[in-house]
Each structure stands twice: as C-alpha cells, then as structure tokens.
C-alpha cells in the first residue's frame, strides 16, 4: 500500500516537460500514428490506473490535455481516430498486471479520440469517422465539403472502396500483425518494438466507427458526438452512395435528396429494417401456410414461394458475410438465428426431395417435422424487431451476456455430471443400467429433486440419500 501511494505521488509530481508531444505528419500511416501516440500514452499513465470518468478531473486527464490540444490544433492526419482505436485494441490485448494499467491506457485512447472529435465541425467529424481506410491510409481530408455530396480526392495508388469491399480484407490474424502481440510486453516508456508489422492492408476497408465497434470501444461510442453521427446514418441523413451503378464510389456525405438515386434510399438502415420486417412477416405467413396444407404428394405453389423466400434470405446473409467479414458479422446477436433458419430450410428441402423421389412416407413426414423446427428460429427472429426499442434492446444485451455466462459454466456442469454418473452407476450396477442411470441423472440435474430421493434407495441403501 505504501509503495503504491509512493508511486502515485511520484507520478503526480512528474514534470510535464517529460511528456513529449508526438510529431505527426499528414502523410504518416496509421501504424506510425499509433506508435507515436502510444509513447505519449505510456508516459502519461506510467504506473497508476484510472477509470474513464477519472480522466476528466484527475492528474491523468490533466496530462492528456496537452496531447488533445496538440492533435486538435496541429494534426490533420485522416487516420488519427483509427490509430487511436487500434491502439486501444492493442493495450486491451496486452498481458496486464493486477492493477489494470493497460486497460487504463486503452481508455485513455478512447478519451483522447472523444475530446479530439469535440474540436471538429460536422464535416470534419464525418471525414475522420466514416472515411474508409485504403492501403492502410485513408484519403487526405480535402477542402471539398462532404455535406455537398462531393467526392474527396484520393492519393495516387489508393484503392477506392466499392460495394463489395470487405470489412476485413484479411483474417483476424492480420489485425494481430499490426501490433505483434506475441512479443514480450514493453514495460518501459517507449513503444519502439522492431517486431511491429507494417502490413498496409491489415485494416483495409474499415472506417474508424467500424474499428471502434470491433475493439469494443464502448466509452467512445457512447459519447454524444459519436451517437449523433450514428443516428444520422440510421435516419439516412448521412449516406455512403449516390447511385447504384458499377462506377459508384463509396464516400460518406450528408444526403442531398435532390441528387441521390432513389434506389440508394434502400441502403438507409431505417428503410432496410422496415423491409426486413415486411419480409419476415410474409415469410412467417408462408411458413404457416405450408405447415397447414402439409401436402405429402407434391410441391405446391405456396411451398415454392417458401423456397424462394429461403433462397433470398440465404443470399442476403451470404452477401452480408462477404461485405462485412466474418469477424464483424459474428458481432450481430441474431446471426446464429439467421444461420439456423437457413440450415433448417436446407435440411427440409433435401428431405422433401429425397422423400418425393423415393416415394417414402416416412421421409416426407420427417421433412415436415424438420420444418416444424424452423419456428424455433423464425419466430424469435421476428421478435428481434422490437429490439429497436431502448428497453427491449437492453434486454437483448442482457440475454447475450447470460448466454455467454451459461456456456462458460457448462464445462463445470458436464464434469460434475460425469462424476456423479460414474459414482451412481457403480453403486447401482446390479439394479440400474448405464442408460437408465444417465436419464435419471439428467432429470435430477434439470431440477427433478423428488425423483432423486425416490430412486436413492435403489441406487444405494447406504450412500444414496447422502449423495442426492
């Protein structure tokens, strides 16, 4: 305790002149920007952790203010916010000590990014948050106004984003290559490890807002300046496309209704969600009609419509995976439900065709039994539309965390189950078989306590009641 107070006092007395402001050029790559800022962050938070809220009032926040002012006044590198988000990811993935020092440094990156955005106007915020990276560097911030829908000029050799630009050009391992996490933890006040990879395509196709979502920069994303941009994207006030042709270029700008292609409005999230609701309601109606008719001898018109709906849904999901990348796609809570709908639909189609080809009544009945399982995924998926409400949206997050906790606890349950199964099977070896004992124990584990006491005498007159 005394040692920690001593370190805290010494850190408070740190001369601000030791905090050398990073010299960031507009042409620096994202990796270079991250390295330069990391040196300042490590020096500003040497040995005393703090929370995000503490940075507003504590001495750590006082040390970060010169950096924020320097970035706001002198730095115009378009990869700055991306670099801070990637740096936050790097600190969060370093092996940390018990006091959470690296976590505090990651929060400092979010704090600096937030404060930097507050010094920008609306046009500049759009540029820094939403312009995709290209060749590890985004196009420079131009004097052309995104609010007028103009396209920024890119540097020579840059690759323009298009509709099929993947969210992650490389696999997740490419992200790790930017900051080689396999190298030993740097405990000093510098960040000049020679093992840092300069792979320029590691974050190709990502913008700062997407990176923030992937690295779980929750504090940054919750700030009003960021939420305002997200709301504008949701309502279609900020769009990325002006037309739906092969020569269209993806660039974020404020929507101009007089000049935008009407079909581009279909890309606006609120409209997509509306069409999604209509699609699922019609899908559910067709699904119930197929189950109600249950034609065992032939495929009727309604069933053909259901196959078309399943194919369209599968195509949309595949397009989403190709566009966003698997790493970003799996962040969606309902992705498992979507894959379940597709999987059950394909299984039904295969069994249905095989049953009709072989004229097997059993296989045909089995195919409709499989189709009945579709409701387990389809009905909750329609209810997901209520997650747009703040209250139900929070419940979805709680359900997601509960599911994660349940899956983490399952190995412990399995180990305990196997232990009790072995013991009870040996005790009742002359009276109950392994399969009977397994089923009894499953019922007991799922809460049928009275069954356990009823069978305890048969398991063992001596140990049965004690073990139950």
From TrEMBL:
Keywords: Membrane, Transmembrane, Transmembrane helix. Residues 150-160 have a biased composition (Polar residues). It comes from the Eukaryota. Residues 137-163 are annotated as: Disordered. Residues 280-451 form the Calcium channel YVC1-like C-terminal transmembrane domain. Pfam families: YVC1_C. The keyword Transmembrane applies. Coiled coil: none annotated. The chain crosses the membrane at residues 275-292, 304-329, 336-355, 375-397, 409-428. PANTHER family: ION TRANSPORT DOMAIN-CONTAINING PROTEIN (PTHR35859:SF5), NONSELECTIVE CATION CHANNEL PROTEIN (PTHR35859). This is Calcium channel YVC1-like C-terminal transmembrane domain-containing protein.
């Amino acid at each position: 305790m005394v040692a920690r107070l001593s370190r805290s006092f010494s850190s408070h007395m740190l001369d601000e002149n030791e905090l050398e402001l990073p010299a960031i050029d507009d042409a620096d790559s994202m990796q270079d920007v991250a390295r330069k800022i990391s040196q300042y962050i490590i020096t500003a938070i040497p040995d005393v952790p703090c929370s995000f809220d503490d940075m507003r009032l504590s001495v750590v926040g006082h040390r970060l203010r010169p950096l924020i002012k320097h970035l706001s006044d002198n730095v115009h590198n378009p990869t700055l916010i991306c670099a801070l988000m990637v740096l936050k990811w790097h600190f969060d993935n370093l092996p940390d000590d018990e006091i959470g020092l690296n976590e505090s440094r990651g929060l400092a990156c979010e704090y600096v990014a937030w404060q930097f955005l507050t010094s920008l106007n609306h046009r500049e915020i759009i540029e820094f948050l939403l312009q995709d990276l290209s060749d590890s560097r985004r196009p420079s911030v131009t004097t052309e106004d995104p609010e007028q829908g103009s396209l920024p000029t890119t540097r020579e050799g840059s690759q323009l984003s298009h509709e099929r630009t993947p969210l992650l050009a490389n696999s997740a391992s490419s992200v790790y290559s930017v900051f080689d996490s396999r190298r030993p933890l740097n405990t000093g006040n510098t960040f000049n490890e020679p093992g840092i990879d300069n792979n320029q395509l590691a974050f190709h196709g990502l913008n700062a807002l997407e990176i923030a979502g992937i690295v779980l920069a929750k504090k940054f994303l919750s700030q009003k300046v960021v939420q305002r941009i997200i709301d504008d994207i949701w309502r279609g006030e900020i769009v990325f496309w002006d037309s739906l042709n092969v020569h269209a270029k993806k660039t974020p700008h404020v929507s101009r209704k007089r000049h935008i292609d009407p079909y581009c409005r279909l890309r606006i999230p609120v409209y997509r969600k509306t069409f999604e609701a209509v699609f699922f309601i019609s899908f559910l109606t067709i699904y119930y009609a197929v189950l109600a008719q249950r034609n065992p001898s032939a495929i009727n018109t309604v069933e053909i419509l259901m196959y078309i709906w399943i194919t369209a849904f599968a195509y949309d999901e595949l397009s989403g995976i190709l566009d966003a990348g698997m790493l970003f796609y799996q962040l969606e809570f309902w992705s498992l439900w979507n894959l379940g709908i597709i999987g059950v639909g394909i299984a039904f189609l295969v069994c249905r065709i095989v049953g009709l080809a072989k004229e097997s009544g059993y296989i045909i009945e089995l195919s409709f039994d499989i189709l009945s399982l579709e409701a387990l995924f389809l009905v909750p998926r329609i209810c997901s539309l209520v997650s747009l409400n703040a209250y139900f949206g929070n419940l979805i997050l709680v359900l997601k965390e509960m599911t994660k906790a349940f899956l983490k606890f399952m190995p412990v349950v399995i180990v305990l189950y196997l232990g009790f199964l072995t013991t009870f099977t040996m005790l009742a070896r002359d009276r109950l078989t392994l399969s009977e004992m397994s089923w009894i124990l499953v019922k007991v584990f799922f809460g049928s306590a009275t069954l356990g006491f009823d069978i305890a005498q048969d398991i063992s007159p001596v140990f049965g009641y004690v073990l139950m």
